[in-house]
Amino acid sequence: MTELLVADSFLVANGKVRGLELHRDRFVRSCAAAGVAAERFWDEQIGRLPGFGRWFPRFELKAPGELAVQLRPAPPIGGRVRVAVHDGPDPRTAPRVKGPDLELLGKLKESAADRADEILLLDADGTVLEAAYSAVVWWEDDALCFPEPDRPLLPSVTAQLLRRIAASQGVEVAEHSLTPEALQNTTEAWLVNALHGIRPIHAWGPSAIDPLPNSHSALWQSHLESLATRLP
Question: What is the rounded CA–CA span in Å between residue 165 and residue 224?
Answer without folding.
Answer: 8
